[in-house]
Write the structure tokens for this entry.
Amino acid sequence: MSRLVFYGTTGKFTWRMLATVLAGQSIIIFFGALVARGVAMAGSQPATAGRYLLVGSAVAVLCVAGAGLTRKPYGVTVGWVVQLLTILSGLVVPMMFLVGLIFLALWVVSLLQGGKVDRLRAPVG
């Protein structure tokens, strides 16, 4: 039976899938930060534009770091934090709610299906 993991090590195939999700997510989050900056500059919040870009870039870097940490027990936890932050970024750029839900779905599927593949590939005996 597959289960969601919030902390702990995963199999080789699973952490590769999780790292791929986070690497792709970092690019999209950075683009979302650029959109937030642009909207703030064009609107009535030019003072916050730099902060949006800085925070969004920090989350994108956290994605890259999380991709590298997926082999470690706390790497999965970092990934869950990134999923939460991505969804919360929808408070600034509403379309990021949808992006966050898509990447959350990819994250959950990677955890569940990756675990199945790792169990099937495990040596017998």
Q: What stands out?
A: The chain has one domain: 12-119.
